[in-house]
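Example (one chain per record):
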Amino acid sequence: MSADARRTASDSIDVTRLLDAYGNGDRDALDQLLPVLYADLQRIARHHLAGEGAGRPFDTTGLVHEAYIRLVGVNATSITSRAHFLSLAARTMRRVLIDGARQRNALKRGGRQDPVTLNSEALGVADRSEDLLALDRALAKLESLDLRQSRVVECKVFAGMTYPEISRALDISVATVKRDWGTARAWLNRELSQ
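Predicted structure:
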């Protein structure tokens, strides 16, 4: 067994042990889990923020840390694996970005701040909050129609997971992941084009 394979197996065991401890109420286990999975969380955050432009509300580190703060309050008894945890982290990051988009839209419409003459359009920075909110509404609708397909989309789009990673995270076959991804992608394209 190569050194990388041994390290991966050891990391997997550590992650499983820490997830079990966290699921059993050991809040310190999450603090120990963060450094082990930090590179994966950074990758997911970069994937979320790709294409956001200079006006994005978070940098990669900020998004990871905000998601971590929210994950502290999650009931971890149902987290079964590293892939499942990363799927949950990706979903949490998505919620952070959606909440930020809602807040920015509220401010645009006369929220509690004085109007400012410069805006993202004047600075040449694209504000994708409307697109993000439309995608969130479509995903919520898809979730009510087919929960598994919505989870596949979250893993693929928001976490940047591969088919095998999604398969492990959701405990379904790779063929089912591919089928769900194709169906969900076609449905979302129709929904978002209306």
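Caption: The chain has eight helices and no strands.
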